[in-house]
Amino acid sequence: MPHRSHFYFVIVALLSAFFRLRAFSWLLRSTLPALLLAIPIVFQPEIRRALERLGRFSNFLTIGGVETSAASPEIECIALACQQLADQHYGALIVIEREAGLQDYVDTGVKMDSLVSAELLVQIFIKDTPLHDGAVILRQNRIASAACVLPLSIEATLSQQQFGLRHRAALGISEASDAVAVVVSEQTGTISVAHNGKMIRQLDAARLQNILTAFHRPRDNRLFGWFNNANKKESPKKSHDVI
Fold it and tell me: Of the residues 61, 122, 154, 201, which has the fewest C-beta atoms closer than 10 A?
């Protein structure tokens, strides 16, 4: 492990200085500049993620950048589009970037930088259109990219019969970041939301809009606690299935 190797390097340097091992100390001093140059290269992904989080620290809002308690026009468009897609059994995967940057995944798709509208989202996911495969990523109230490739969930207990690639990708991106992913099932026409490796299923447009609006507010521990503990709070008789 790189972290452990650097720890050992410091220990060896201290021991060589304590026991006055001059030749060994000279060797360590000679390799130190190369080590300092190697650190940014070895830890490039970690450093990039840290800088992205630092740059977004002041923006506690999830999508837009303006505090609100009502649904934004973009959220209304997402809910309306998902309902229309569900009614027609068109599969869809929409990812909302939050504090953790998703640039690596944005780069895998077709750049758009477009305003969010229900009509455009529906058009993207109509079957056999060029962009219908993959995910749409939303960033700061705009469609950043479409046909994006996402990581699949590493959860081994997921049933392949219940969860297709879109659901696995939604869970995967929610495990790899703090993003919120909305899925429309092509087979069943059900709408689901994934966050933090968990998924709430069988939502309607109103319920979806309420959940996305809650995530659109500044971070609230009650919201995250509710989502993470939804398995315990939701009754099996209700229509919202949580995994």
Answer: 154
